[in-house]
Specification:
Elements (H helix, E strand, L loop, with lengths): L1 H22 L7 H25 L17 H5 L13 H4 L11 E8 L5 E11 L2 E13 L3 E2 L12 E2 L1 E13 L4 E14 L2 E15 L6 E10 L2 E3 L2 E3 L4 E13 L2 E11 L6 E10 L3 E9 L4 E12 L5 E11 L5 E9 L1
Antiparallel strand pairs: 1-2, 1-18, 2-3, 3-6, 4-5, 6-7, 7-8, 8-9, 9-12, 10-11, 12-13, 13-14, 14-15, 15-16, 16-17, 17-18
Length: about 350
Amino acid sequence: MNRARSVLRVARITLECGRLRRRIPPGRSLRPALMVLAILSMHAIFAASVQAAREFEKVATIGAQILKLSVGARAVAMGGAFTAIADDASCVYWNVGGLARIQDNVFAVNHTPWLADISFSQVTFVGHTRYLPGTFALHARSVYMPEMEVRTVFRPQGDGTSFDAGEMAFGLSYARSLTDKFSAGVGASFIQSTLASYRGNAMTFDFGTIYDTGYRNFRIGMQIQNIGSDLTYIEEPVRVPTVFRVGMSTRLLDRGGQRLVTAAQFSHPPDNSERANLGGEYSLRDFVFLRAGWYYRFDTERFSLGGGLRLPGVIAREARFDYAYTEMNGLPAIHCFSAEFRF
C-alpha cells in the first residue's frame, strides 16, 4: 500500500513537471524543473520507506550492542552527524575513510558513564609508518559494570558468590587518500561478549569513504559498518548490528577567526527504522568550540549539546578536551568525555 502511494506521488510529480516543461519558453533551461522532480521524487520515496520501516522494526533482535555506542564527545555533541567530518581519532567508529586525513600521531581516550552503572570506554592510537603509505589505527573499547551477586530461587538475597558481564572489542583500521579529494579505508574488529562463564565471539569489518567536492569544504561520507560473522552465544547465533550511514557536511562560515560547520546524516540500522542526525560546530580562533545536535526518529536520544578546548603545547604538540551532554527520552541524561593528544 505504501509503495503504491509512493508510485502515485512520483507519477503526479512527473505529470506536473511535464506540464511545466510545456510552459517553459524556447531557449530556457530545463535544469530547474529536473532538479525539482528529483528532489520531490526522493522525498516521496523516502517518506514511503520510512512508513514501511515503521511497520517492520526488529527491536531486540541484534547482539553486540557495544558496536552501536557512539565514540567521541565531539561527535556526540554534534548529534552523531559525523560520518562526513570524521577528522579526529573517533573516525575509526564513524567513518574509517577519515583516517587518511589525519597527518599526526594521535592518542585519544573516550569515557561515557552510561545508564544503570554501566560504563563505556575506548582508547585509540593513530599512527604512520614509512613502509606503508596511508594511516593506520589501533583501538580497543569496553562496556563494563560492577560485579553482581548470584541469586537463586532458594537464596533470593544471594548465595555469597558473584558474576560479571560485559563486552570488549579490539580493532585495526587502515586508510589512504587515493586522490587529493577522495579517501577510503577498511577496518577489522574482534568482539567478545561475556556473561559469567559464558562467552560469545565475532569478527566484523568496516568500509568507509570520504569525498571532498572542493566547494566550501562540502564533503560526502559513506560507511558500511560491522559486516561479519554472527555472535555465537550459548550455542545460539546472534547477528551483529550491520549499519549503513551516509552523510554530508559543509562550512557555512570561515572568516575573522570564526568557523561554523554543519552536518547531516542518514542511517539504516538492522533492528530499527531509518533515522537522521543533524549537528553543527562553531569555533572561535580554533581554540573554543560550541556544538549542538538533534536526533530524528531515535528511541532514546533527543538532542545533544557540548563544547571543547584546543590547547597547543599542553602535554603534547596539541591537546583537545571535549564534553557532550545528551538529553534522553524518559531516562537520565548521558555525559561523554574525550581527550585527544597529537604528537
